[in-house]
What does this fold into?
Amino acid sequence: MKVLLGVTGGIACYKSPEIVRRLADHGVEVQVVMTQSACEFIKPLVFQAVTGNPVHLDLLDEDAEAGMGHIELARWADVFLIAPATANTIARMTAGIADDLLSTICLATTAKQVIAPAMNSMMWHHPATSANLETLKSRGVEVLGPDEGSQACGETGVGRMLEPDDIVTAIVEGNNTTVAEPGLLAGVNVLITAGPTREDIDPVRFISNHSSGKMGFALAQAALEAGARVTLVAGPVRLPTPAKADRVDVISARDMHREVMQRAGDADIFISVAAVADYRVTEQADSKIKKSADDMVLTLTRNADILADVAALASRPMCVGFAAETENLETYARGKLQRKKLDMIIANLVGGTATGFNSDQNAVEVFWPEGGQSFSSRSKQSLSVDLISLIASRYQRQNTKDRS
Ligand code: PMT
It folds into this structure.
């Protein structure tokens, strides 16, 4: 694999030479292009030393153009990774500005483009940055991170560039397997839930959570690629339906419970990715609740556990749950595996921005009664391919055992 690393002018570029070294450990060829402001933070010589190649700096450098010019560089790369990607670079990419070497390559390349943003947390949360990122994602640019924590400016929040190891894992694994092995689940019926549920308080308010549906939809896509027939019961999310999936849209946990129970008998595998509300409002108001006292008390009623109910069926599919935890991942996940009588549970840490809810990447620990496996951070698409392959192998083992 050939990676063109674009380095732009942010303090996080002190970590970029480490990205080069880690990529080289995986046998990846790397060339570096730097913006002028990146050169204010770190000398091109550092990158020349770690890549063994001259560093590309200028669009109008005759010597460079005579060797490997911007079009050759754009064609050479399999992946164009920009790390760090500053707010300014992201805005310029969105606008299609091409007034230096790096931005010109952004327009000229057909390589996969990946950015690892790094900026102050206020800049990250600015609506202009959010809108730019949405536009870039809709054009197929993959966004890695950012992470949260203490920042060079002294603030704490979201905006730190992901660690070099995480970036390199995402690049290497993202490039290896983005399509599930066809035939792995040929003829198998897979039922998947995805997204959040919404529990109405009154006609204008509801209780919900941050699930975007990305994890469940990516698993549906991977299961389809593996040859499965997929039914996707989705909470309120704005994601396109994977081609050939049979999609059923629902709003509340009770809707989801009803639609899943109607279909569970035909399913061979049930994967419960949805972040189902554990409680609903006991009495929904028919009209908008008016403000009166300073405090307002809502009484909540426990929703049925869809996954546990499917696992309790006399003739049940293989049941794969998810566990969203903020701590004690293995203990809590294994507890759910046992209590809900599951065949497998996929545990992820939630509460940050790099993995879990609404992120493009995820890292998970998978547990089944007699074993487990870890999957480091990578895109939800790439992770889903690996998870479907693991689920398929456990499913086949289980079926062979049942028959013998
Ligand atoms: O949608 P994304 O933004 O991509 O985010 C993905 C995710 C974080 C939502 C996903 O990876 C995830 O962790 N999903 C499970 C969320 C959850 O509700 O976890 P839990 O630990 O509270 O529930 C355990 C299991 O029971 C889950 O499989 C859940 O679907 C199921 N459950 C929970 C409550 C309920 N009433 N019925 C259920 O079926």
